[in-house]
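name: query_chain
kind: protein
chains: 1
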Amino acid sequence: MANRKFLTSVADVFAYDDSDNILFTAKTLLDSSIEVSLGSAPVRGGRGNQLQYIYYHTGEMKFNLTDTQWNLAMLAGTVGSLQSSSEPYYIEEEVTVTGSAGTVAELPLAFETGGVIYGWATSPLGVNQRIVIASPARTFSVSGVETSGTWCVRYLTLNASVGKTVTISANMIPSVIKLVMETQLNSSDVNTNKIGIVQIIAPTVTLSGGFSIAMKADGVANTPLTGTALSYNPGGAGCTTEPYYATITEIIDSSNWYDDVVALAIEGGNYTQATATTHTVVVWAIPSSGAAFHAPYEGKITFGLATLAGTSINASTGVVTSGTTAGTATITALIASATTIDVTCIVTVA
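structure:
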């Protein structure tokens, strides 16, 4: 197992709505940063106004992402909009004008409902003029000295198969998404270099609604996204459920759940079980560092029970079924793929 670990490069990002539909992915980021901050307030008192306690509060977790590609879906989430294909846009086409008359290929539209349908025509010599286009005939007329040739005509139209639109509402309400970030974990202690990934899952992130698009003659416009994690309550029974902002999980390639386990323990140790009942043996795994955890069953832990007439144990689930004969038996639990790590306890059937 590698001791020195390094989080390298940028993350791949996946965003989901509250129904787990994918909103956007970003795999060509320039940066993907996370900033966690915590406020504090000193509690002082006594002679010299001594520091008695520090109260920590106002924890925040912020995300900053920049995609090197143009990502309209990211912008849609930022401003709380959905991509649509129903908004008009301007196009330019070459039109042959004969005798001052021409016909455009697409159906022209007015910028405002019921308004005049205007177009803008540029003659072969570069003279511009505003024109009125008839609908649905799509015809127009030009005036002036030039009355023929190939003209460049610009006008408003709609083709749902090619146009995608994000509307930035004047009353902007940014989206709340589930944000998943995933990046590689490297180590110089192994010859494969890459040893796994780190995955950050923030269940509820409110996007900022703000962005800037810098278009420069010698540059490429990036797609930015910023957001702040909201408190997420996973629910569950009891009084100990704590809301959280995100989880950070280290996933090691080709690793096993038991690689760092040094011992097993059976919850409660030796126990007594009534005749003709069932009981599930609970096994805890104890790692060399960190907290103990429930060992996985179903093929990961193998259970056994020494002979006691009528009493048996399920080798995969650890369910002990007692018979009608009183007595004691030894229960064994061991890691199926590391059989030297095991634990025993005594069950008394009475």
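note: Helices lie at 72-79.
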